[in-house]
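Supplementary notes for students who missed Thursday's class. We covered one full example, reproduced here. Read the sequence, then the structure, then the short commentary at the end.
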Amino acid sequence: MTSVVTRHIISAGADRIGWRSLSTRFTTAGLAGPMRFRVLLEDLGGSFVKFGQVLAVQPDLLPPGYATALLDLLDRVAPVPTDVFMRSLADELGPAVGRLEGIDPQPLATASIAQVHVANLDGRKVAVKVQRPGIEQAFRADVRMMMILLRVVRLFRVRPLYWLDEPIREFAGWTDEELDFRREARHLTLVRRQSLGRKGVRMPEVIIGLTTRRVLVTEYLDGVPMATYMRAVESGDFTIDQRLRAEGFDPGAFGRQIIFNFTTDSFGHGLFHADLHPANLLILPGNVVGYVDFGITGSIGPYARTWLAAMTLALVRRDIDDLHRSFLKLVVPRRDADPVKFRVGLEAMADSWYGGPGGTRLKKPAALVMVEMLGLSRETAMLPEREVVKYIRSVMTLDGVVHRFAPDLNLGHEIEQASIATLDAQSGRQLVFAAWAGGLRAIESSRSLATRGMSVVNMRRLGLGMSTTVLQLGAAALACAICVSRAPLPLRAGFNLGTVELAVGSLALIGLAIELLRQTNE
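Structure (token representation):
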């Protein structure tokens, strides 16, 4: 269902490769404020369209109606003419373009960087994604303009605009990622591989040999884009909703599956889709989530995953001390960093987050909370690492999508459970290693003691009893440690890897001493 503005844009022709001039576009009579804003962003093009895509999934940041109007920027930007698309495709693929047959002249989706058409390859449908001509130069020009703006802000000490520094630098980094489709193909392949065997998720296969810097060909997933579903429901057209529900579609179950996939990828594997807007999510039969467009992908290591889980858990439970402690583990502080001010700022904002001094659960949308946290981190020069920011912004986007798609779904609760599981698994791995290391040290110490003056004991008789005792006490200590670790918190001072290892080793040595005395008395 194409919007009135989109039909007007397409029917009115195209200049600047499908984009009409600003003065001409605003002669269109009858456009309301939200539509005018959308048209303005689309006319400015490139990075401004990306900015509109971010706002489209954050209805709490905009006046009513604006987020809905901006949904078209996700997959319905004015298209590149078909002949321009085909010329770009041929220039990139060369003779290999002949392998693609029956290319549909009607775009499947049109976005800020590329547009997608359906074609046939060796008897199966594929999605052909081609970068807009000139878009790389346009994006880089926008980035240069933004960097000049940053210099001006710093030169004239316009402190209220200092917050722009980090987002602009992030955008510059993300631009490099999105403009190289070979990188996207690699990320898609890796995330797809780690999802194999998991129910409720499907990712397209990359077609080897037909992917270049500006062209990406993948398996075609036949599903309903979430953006199309949301656009139809919000306009009062329930035809798609009724058809999907007749096939067993449940928005709540589908939303939970999106959250589960995100937390499994980010906490479990460390590699995740970091651009979860509605046009990149497909509704497939059986409440299966289909994923496309891996232009922005996040990667976080085991250390960061543990503290991100701890930070998320502390946030949803109003544990400001743990929130502060966990966040400090994830930042790269500048010289002028002020962790005390950051801690005071968290305390000051907590009441608005949790609905008052006595509140213990988040009342404000997670997107707004994350925005305020990132703002405070910039103000106090406590800046998270870039990949951590990707995770935080992904949660913000996910919150906006869930809020609009399945408003009854509690994102905080779902992420809380994933955080608990992550911390439990991490604690379990550390405890197993600690017990194993403690037991080895105890055995080594016992051998050392035995060879240094305990020859009165029959070593042959002692060997079996000593080993058995060490193993029994080590297993008992490990069981006790695991029971204690069931509290879903990261290992802290007083109960960490070193103390567990020491405890297991000490108990084993005590058992060894008892065994030695018994054998001597005999």
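Commentary. Residues 1-29, 452-464, 484-498 have pLDDT under 50 and may be disordered. The first strand starts at residue 109 and ends at 110. If anything here is unclear, bring it to office hours.
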